[in-house]
Amino acid sequence: MMTQENIYPVTTLSRASREELLGQRSLMIWFTGLSGSGKSTLALALEERLSREGKICRVLDGDNIRTGINNNLGFSIEDRQENIRRIAEVSKLFVDTGIITIAAFISPTRQIRALARDIIGADDFFEIYVNTPLEVCEQRDVKGLYKKARAGLIKEFTGINSAFEEPERADLVIDTSKQSLEESVDMIMKAIESRITKEK
């Protein structure tokens, strides 16, 4: 049986050393909200803005997680929890490597989001609640998921037949029905600037 004592160290380079090399401080930026609220759009726009400013970052969302590392999971509350647990563990590796990591997942319950925060570490976790009204999310419904959920074709769909628990203490709240994409990214950049800037 393998124990902690006989596991060979996987790296000798500390997080601080990696951040020094990259010229930035790493952070987990976690978008939560209903399907269609604008999480992925915001995450990708933020990644583009950060990249233009010379920051090293990585977006994780359903498209690149559910089709790969988590393709064996469904959408029961247990599978959703396991989905977020795996994402958080992967995200922690990115953060420990000095990379600004951006996650865009519904993560519908406070317990699930608390799990992610605990794994990654509260000091490295910046939660953004994309609080776009349900009716706006349904109007956007580019994949037809809300329509299918209303018709009973999709079970346990968040916002329709499965609850979404609003964050009680999000670091930032954005409503994409009221703020433009550029305004929203500006808000995020202003909020995280001091957290990702490496002191000289």
Keywords:
200 residues, 12% strand, five-stranded parallel sheet, single chain, alpha/beta
Please tell me about this protein's structure.
With about 200 residues, this protein is an alpha/beta fold. The protein has helices at about 15-20, 40-50, 60-65, 75-95, 110-120, 135-140, 145-150, 180-195, and strands spanning about 30, 55-60, 100-105, 125-130, 170-175. The protein has a 5-stranded parallel beta sheet, sandwiched between helices. Helix 2 packs across helix 8 (about 180-195) and helix 4 (about 75-95) packs parallel to helix 5. It is globular, with a radius of gyration of 18 Å. The termini are far apart.
Helix content: 40-55%
Global shape = globular
Q: How many beta-strand segments?
A: 5
Query: How many strands, which pairing sense, and closed or not: the largest β-sheet?
Result: 5 strands, parallel
Widest sheet, order of strands: 2-3-1-4-5
Radius of gyration: 18 Å
**What structural class is derived from the secondary structure elements?**
alpha/beta
Strand content: 5-15%
Which residues form runs of ≥5 with pLDDT under 50?
A: none
* Alpha-carbon distance between the two ends: 46 Å
The helix count comes to 8
The mean pLDDT is 89
The topology string of helices and strands comes to HEHEHHEHEHHEH
What is this structure's SSE topology?
Layout: H1 15-22, E1 28-32, H2 39-52, E2 57-61, H3 62-65, H4 77-96, E3 100-104, H5 110-120, E4 125-130, H6 134-140, H7 145-150, E5 172-174, H8 181-196
Helix pairs in contact: 2-8, 4-5
